Amino acid sequence: MSLNEAISSLKRGEFILLHDAGKRENEVDMVVAAEFVTPAHIARMRQYAGGLVCLTINHSFAQNLGLHYMHDILSNSQEVDNESKKMIMGKAPYGDQPSFSISINHVQTYTGITDRDRSLTIQEMANLYKNLNGNKKQEFISSFKTPGHVPVLIAKNGLLSNRLGHTEMSIYLMGLSKLSPVATICEMLDSELYTALSVEKAKKYAKENAIPFLEGKELLEFSKVH
Hints:
Structural class: alpha+beta
Number of helices: 9
Shape: globular
Order of helices and strands: HEEHEHHEHHEHEEEHEH
Strand order of the largest sheet: 4-5-3-6-2-1-9
CATH topology: DHBP synthase
Radius of gyration: 17 Å
CATH superfamily: DHBP synthase
């Protein structure tokens, strides 16, 4: 079963490929558990996926850190005039509100964009989730800076019952894998056609590199039963 293979891969700190749905983005993302991320993971995402390397977190962790969705931050900002607020995305073409929050760098990074810097930022966010001592919000504020080079995506409360994005699916998979609800995702793009990589090409890459390929619809059906 591909779901079991995906869970085993995630537990080993390895990638899976995750397709959301044909009626949604219809994109395949590389996904790895944030707690295992190394510079090599970031380099591979950059070279073989090519999309935006993002950090996904669950809703309660975001609340603990005082993080909000970017569309809400901008809507409530007095620095953005009403005319400019018309730019704020309500829903994407596929029907969902965006899950973007702020973007961050860890304080020990330099530019923040290198493979080492981004992996450090991601690792430290996973470590922050695991830290059971002290005030997580205060530690977050003292350890990270914004704007940065790692976009944070907040999963909807209720996960797949409220939104079927890669953000929610990646966090749901972390739960199934008994890992921290912090993941790293990156869209796979086609450098020849300048589009999202097709499912067929993504499956070919998965097969050639022994990476589990998981359909979002399989994950959704599993969540309905369980």
